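Translate sequence into structure tokens.
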Amino acid sequence: MKVQRSTFFTVNLKSNLHHFHSSQGIAISELDPVSKLLDRKWGLQSPATPIHQISVSSAKGIGKLSFLNNTRPRLGDEVSKKGSSFYILRDDLLHPLVNGNKARKLDALLPLLQDHKVTDLVTCGGCQSAHTAAVGKKSVSCAERGVRSHLLLRGEQPEVLTGYNLVSTMYGNVEYVPRSKYANREEMLRTHADLVAGEDGSVLWAKDLEAIDGFSTSQAASSRKVLIVNEGAGDALALLGMFRLVKYLSEDHLLGKKSRVKFVVDAGTGTTAVGLGVAAMSLGLPWEINAVMLADTLENYKRHEHRLLEEFTRQFLPSIVCSRLDTIKWVERQRPRKFGKVLEGEVEMCRKIAQQTGVLVDPMYTLAAWETATELVEDEDSSIVVMLHTGGTLGMFGLAQRYKSFFTNLKH
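Result follows.
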């Protein structure tokens, strides 16, 4: 597996600021900028997620791996560092539709929709994009606030609507955009948002929502306030949900603050990986983030990483001193391919994993993380290997529509 280390900005914080200074009666938020950062409203009721342990066995020979799921593993002081197993964070169980990293990315954003009286939200993605479905589904829960979602989907409308494409269509206002126009996402999003806003409305990008204190209060109450969210929720605001998750996982009864952890996550835009990396180093955790590159080049992932870091530190942690540190490993998946392509045998492997463990992964995204976690387990005996399940399981329906032969063979 080819590995590329990322040159990373880090935040120099002392880990002992996680505790109260009871002798002085000073709360964490007054001493620790990270804890103060997390003192806000959230979309998810709790940062908690089910944690399972997957045992890997190759007793039947190479390529004949088998798996066993322990749904109540030992954690805290008894967390396992040895043996052929890895932990999996079941974020796919957070919600039937809005789960995985999509829910985490929207965790800090959703309360702001109400606070800033947003009327419309514009975003974009592929036809089977779990992000667009998440925004579309969340717009239902935001209906009391009058929020409407406008979803720009890349390409042509499928003959039969399935999976996330169907969910997006049911809950949002969907428009299909030619690939040539979609290539310039920023212009496309801004143009559509201006149309939604009309002459009297206003438009704001998610990255500026807090930085400039939201929308103008002088415009008419009936005017539309349109918020633009980047593809994959690739804004600095999305990183806050990862901070909240990492802070929760670092509690002593879970992964703790001292154990070496090798995190594994599949990388579409790479936003989730950056969020995990920044959070881990900000909290002084000895964690390494293995981000499996799926949809772009190493250079573009690093460029996205650098933009997010600059945006995040400027917007949320401007007083923090930054330096260089290797924290993220951008790694290639076991069998690299053009994004969107499913290879022979991968659907069968997803079925095997589901039957043996009850965990549903998909061949586009989460299978790549599963394979990398399995590979790390074989080579690692001093670190805890942890995979973040990024959800998106409804995407299997869209894949079944595109790769009919792979799924037809499953009945044999």
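Note: The chain has a mean pLDDT of 83.
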